[in-house]
Design a protein that fits this description.
By secondary structure, this protein is of the alpha/beta class. It has a 7-stranded mixed sheet. Strand 2, helix 5 and strand 3 form a beta-alpha-beta unit. It starts with 7 loop residues before the first helix and ends with a strand.
């Protein structure tokens, strides 16, 4: 457990010191929303964000392109929140959910990986990813919130490292202006960017050093040099 009392490792899963800032940024908004709100999580293969929302008292529909239940439910049972969660398969690009049906939609590191054809990486494009966000907008009720954490291109240094490691072919890392374009239909948007260096070392000490450096650099570097964009967008 972290000092917040939350199982942050199970919620965030990887690169925890940097991506965990979504808890800091989104909690003040979530705490103002009624617990009877209808909540949808997207791309929840392991159910981390769903766990966080259920621990906050929300009832959540937990989804992935194939139903995440067989794996994610083990995590939710571990924390005794399984009674607050239902599961279903959902392709958010070709979404069949009715409009105006959810108060909250949440996704972490999902949109940049979407393709028109899940089996063909050549069908991964900004237009397809915009279609997914437009579907999220459609299923949200008026004044509903979409909480999104997505991968940005980041600095030239990070882009070069990704290329050398072969990490640039399986994802579309958004440009900063593309993030804003994705959410242009929403009436209000709140953005935060974070992270110059990923904190993905096997050593917790090194990860903490990287996290400290990122916090120091956050106020000095422009948004397009960071590699995570946190968005809270209201319909």
């Amino acid at each position: 457990m972290s000092k917040t009392g939350l199982p942050v490792q199970d919620i965030i899963e990887w690169d925890v010191p940097n991506w965990a800032h979504l808890i800091e940024y989104w909690t003040p908004i979530l705490e103002t929303l009624p617990r009877e709100a209808k909540v949808l999580t997207v791309g929840e293969r392991n159910g981390g964000l769903t766990l966080w929302l259920a621990l906050m008292g929300f009832h959540v529909v937990c989804t992935d392109r194939e139903s995440p239940e067989p794996h994610a439910s083990l995590l939710h049972k571990k924390y005794n929140v399984a009674d607050k969660i239902s599961y279903r398969a959902l392709d958010i690009v070709h979404c069949d959910l009715p409009e105006n049906s959810f108060d909250i939609v949440m996704a972490k590191s999902v949109i940049g990986g979407l393709k028109a054809d899940p089996k063909n990486r050549l069908t991964r494009s900004f237009a397809v990813q915009q279609q997914a966000v437009d579907n999220i907008y459609r299923v949200l009720k008026p004044d509903g919130y979409y909480f999104s954490a997505e991968n940005l291109q980041g600095s030239s240094f990070l882009q070069a490292v990704r290329k050398m490691a072969g990490k640039s072919k399986g994802w579309r890392h958004f440009k900063w202006n593309e993030v804003k374009e994705l959410h242009s239909s929403f009436s209000a948007k709140e953005y935060h960017t974070f992270g110059f260096f990923p904190a993905m070392f096997s050593s917790a000490v090194l990860n903490n050093i990287v996290s400290f450096a990122n916090r120091y650099l956050m106020n000095w570097l422009p948004a397009n040099s960071k590699y995570i964009a946190f968005t809270a967008a209201r319909k």
